[in-house]
Batch of 2 targets.
Target 1
Amino acid sequence: MSRREIRVYRDLMGANEKWASETRALLRDRSILMLNLIGSPGSGKTALLERMVDGLCGRSAFAVLEGDVETTRDAERLDALGVPVSQLLSSGACHLEAKLVHHALLDLDLDRLDLVFVENVGNLVCPAEFDLGEAGKIAVLSVTEGEDKPLKYPLLFREASAVVLTKVDLLPYLGFRLEACHAHLRQVAGERPVFEVSARTGEGVDAFTRWVLDQCPSSR
Amino acid sequence: MSRREIRVYRDLMGANEKWASETRALLRDRSILMLNLIGSPGSGKTALLERMVDGLCGRSAFAVLEGDVETTRDAERLDALGVPVSQLLSSGACHLEAKLVHHALLDLDLDRLDLVFVENVGNLVCPAEFDLGEAGKIAVLSVTEGEDKPLKYPLLFREASAVVLTKVDLLPYLGFRLEACHAHLRQVAGERPVFEVSARTGEGVDAFTRWVLDQCPSSR
């Protein structure tokens, strides 16, 4: 029998896993921590990063990869604070994929970084399904979204290494019950760190920043 | 030459369009208006519908199809108000597809309905790409999400027949500039009705309800 070439079609998720795996190896070799911030549109992911800049400066060499469907608005906000930032546009897709993140990482000055934040496209569903090679996913949930979101969108909260409840300065004006939200989080995801923060007042931001720095391989 | 059967693979979106088209014909035959509410998780879609019940009762025979990734929580909220409601679970998907909506519609008592709301899965991106056979999409944007969302997630706002800005009772506590948001909406989508509402205080809900009733074929 003559030899036939067998064509192999790798599906999208398989290719994503390959890139995620390469990214994970790359980051491990350089002792860089990469965190993947995931939350709804307007949950305050960029505002959280803006507010963390002061606490990170001098303690970490960090960069941000900003994921969006369109515009460079979020990257411009961080660039204005002097943060090394790249904008990743998803071409209409509702999540970032590992290949794009990998190539954006290679364009950073990795030798001088110890921390990279990926801010994913605003979406509580799909980004949780796509491994980017990160060390951990951070679920960002605004208290304006309602205490039941961990029950309604459980995958992200199960996958997350930590949860950040944002905009807690608005709690006096909302029907949001913090204790009920914590109970829902435990129900879907067991025990894990939950930070209550306000990017407006700064409340809780230092505690989350300390936790992030503690995760860095360089701090161990 | 012998005849060969040519296999045709219809892609997912093609199948979706077929079901959407059948739904559109079904609704036209029955003179039923179907609106597809799309917005982020926690943007207040269910709260808006809850608040509209009083204004719709006696003026419209309506039903709701509640889309969620998991749980029947939103359907239960409307059921408690006596609204005919079905829960559509997306099995983890970030949007509703036309086939599921079509079958859920067939199980309703269509002969006595003139209005159906579909509340899509909470997501500003993907649901806008899937035609469900609706007469119009309604973009639901909470003012807590930020005035720049029409620029960052333009597809939904371009596709929408009307925009509802929710939670306006929180405006005094936010940096949200209404005029900037209106300008962004015009920039991406031209002129279309924009309603400013608060499901908590009831502000603006009657105006949106009147607009919905005016769209019903039975009111013409």
Note: Strands of chain B lie at 33-39, 62-68, 85-89, 115-119, 136-142, 160-166, 194-196.
Target 2
Amino acid sequence: MELNEALAKLAELQKKLYAYAAADSALYLDGTTVAPKDTAEGRGVALGVLAGERHKLFSTPKTGELLDYLWARRNELDQLHRRQTEELRRSYAQLTRIPAEEYMEYAMLTNEASDVWHRAKENSDFELFRPVLEKLVAFNIKFAGYYDSAKAPYDALLNEYERGMTMEYLDGFFSTLRERIVPLLHAIGKKEQPDDSFLRRHYPVEAQRKFSDYLMEVLGLDRAHCTIGETEHPYTLNFNNKDVRITTRYDEDNMNFSMYSVIHEGGHAKYELGIRDDVQYTCLAGGVSMGVHESQSRFYENLIGRSKPFIEAIFPKTREFFPEQLSDVTAEQFYRAVNKVQPSLIRTEADELTYCLHVMVRYEIEKQLIGGALAVKDVPETWNRLYKEYLGVDVPNDKQGCLQDSHWSGGSFGYFPSYALGSAYGAQMLKNMERDIDVWGPVARGDLSPVSAWLKEKVHQYGGLLEPADVVKNACGQFDPAVFADYLEQKYAKLYNL
Amino acid sequence: MELNEALAKLAELQKKLYAYAAADSALYLDGTTVAPKDTAEGRGVALGVLAGERHKLFSTPKTGELLDYLWARRNELDQLHRRQTEELRRSYAQLTRIPAEEYMEYAMLTNEASDVWHRAKENSDFELFRPVLEKLVAFNIKFAGYYDSAKAPYDALLNEYERGMTMEYLDGFFSTLRERIVPLLHAIGKKEQPDDSFLRRHYPVEAQRKFSDYLMEVLGLDRAHCTIGETEHPYTLNFNNKDVRITTRYDEDNMNFSMYSVIHEGGHAKYELGIRDDVQYTCLAGGVSMGVHESQSRFYENLIGRSKPFIEAIFPKTREFFPEQLSDVTAEQFYRAVNKVQPSLIRTEADELTYCLHVMVRYEIEKQLIGGALAVKDVPETWNRLYKEYLGVDVPNDKQGCLQDSHWSGGSFGYFPSYALGSAYGAQMLKNMERDIDVWGPVARGDLSPVSAWLKEKVHQYGGLLEPADVVKNACGQFDPAVFADYLEQKYAKLYNL
């Protein structure tokens, strides 16, 4: 085999993998947005077959030979091809350990599970979801062994979302955060709370849709390359760096939910749209890890979106979309309301401070589920106990409890810690950004372009070209969760006069 | 190979073909509805690769061997498997004549063409579309040779949409219709025209959307298995008999357009939803031919949807959706308005009588384009000349002329005659239906279920289990276009006092 021939085959392989991913994405997007209700079965058949075909394509020994050949000649490859080969070898090694049949079965299961979870959540019926969740957990334990049998199963899964992440590190990380967040929370508990009742006035969906359009404009999202849809659980889906979709959900009695979900998903979209052209249709397209992805979404959502300069910049326009609802509200009141700290039930509606506690509950449960220390049937009870312990709230039902998130139904175990890691990465990125450029002057004028340009340069552009840890280092320097804790303390000291 | 093993492989092959078709459909649906504007490139890459993979899967010699093996043992097969084998052998023979590269190139071309056509139509710029159309025509001429080199190229393409159809037959068919329609048209031209100006009052999109929901209810379309979307050009897309989508377009100055496009596409959807379960995920799923498909859509649209009993049944409710716009209108006036005969520019807005003349223009042009007697650059001129000759109208621009339809941009040459054939099949089905059951009593009460049950029994249920000609025979008896001409004469004699 000539090197050029091998490189052509490498490109062809990756284009095929892109095509299968695009097919999956289109079916998923359809299934979660416009598809008629009783149509999961047919989509499941298609997704199962496509997963099997992709599996066959990627796991054939010929692929292994091609990758070995290229790896042996890696010194002759440019950075792009070397990195592609390295990443594909890693995926190949992992995938070839999963039997094709199990892989297909799992693809069909997650499709079914999504449907069942929706119905279970709607009816707050954990028993409906339980058998499916049991299968999902069993699959993930088995897959963890395939991924890396030398690791504890949950460590092997964590590694999927943030390479190198371990329970040992996260136990330390979360206990640092908990030690600093819990006292803050107690101090705030003694202070007077701002009034945020105006956020829960009646906000018609149509006006909220227009407000979302405005927010996307402020974020600098080009609508010719990024649309917004509506789903039960908001998400970002990327076909390529010219085609990204975000979704949100409109709650007429809570304008805050869609507002911050749009900014959050918009942050994910900014990342995907900012990735360089020359990695498209390769395994290096797309964000590098879940932790880094969440650092971007939560950067826009919290560090910018819940900052005072940002609120002051957008509030006059916000009031134009909701003149009746916000006529008696000032920017200062709005700022305080969107930063009100209040232990609550729903992660996606949590304030910036208690958010990490929501993540810790999930981390704790996943660790035990995958470690075999907790049975699926006991999830609701454990969930409710931990919410009481960490957040001091009573969970009234599973809809507002352990059925609230879609992640498990999609087969994601080990994803949740990325949210907390991302928050912490982001705080450190902000600190460095403030050193490099004038962040708050432009933001106060509603201009996010310097912020976006900095993030594009330090994070977005690379896609998967660098290792996740190197991207973090590039933007954060030596990662230190204390920077995030410092940020929280300073922010809430001012807000609550601590 | 054991027979059982071969049958299992046959099922697996068809499930894979279903999965690729579902992936295509999901990407197409997305591309025509919610996808951001500048995203055709990435979708084209995916569609091209998937087309290549499907091609490879289906055209491998192993597939040929499997089909030959089963065909040799066809006497041992039940009807379903025998028919599947027969159909797949036909497709295999045809497909293996198209080189894989050309097949992939063509898939990417049609994706690009759809995008270019949209822009060309928007700007009424035929020159923009011309180079793409030239490529499409060249491909189709080449493909026609692959399909059946013994046939004239256009005959080979016609055969794709309605098996056995030829220019010779269609020349006769269309001249029969023309001989009966043109005198009718002249007679009507001397009569007073009904007032239909109220159809072009201002009809807000939101109210039209609700009206569409109502129409789907009247048609008996179960929304858990059939949704409605919005696209430039309305279409029906079927994943399987439990998952069908229709689309429409809302024109605020013309309530008739979406009304009859919904009923038309609804007719296609009824067909797909009525197909038996045991042919799903096989090559026999889906309507049997374009002509039979159009017979169903145009049955609901015209024979039922533009009938007096139907209008009388739905008019009171229609007025509730549009109280201001229709307050001074009676059911009789509405009936006359939706049946007003007036030679016009746009096929999809044409009345039932002149519709076939629109089809004839396209038939004539396709015949010459594929036959090599007409250059693509001369299409606009020829189009305009034929519209003047057949319909007596002057075409002011290409947007309202040869750029109006999406078919050619999707690579469909030879489809248009199906519309006229379908209309003629439908008229004969109605005649037989009236013999079998009470059609108009229930329709006058807004109850379409007996009509739908008859069509389901005679047409829908079979899917591809019978040959198209046998489905036509089953529902029509010996096909005779004169029945359609009789129907038109009787209908318009009453409407216009001829």
Note: The first helix of chain B runs from residue 3 to 32.
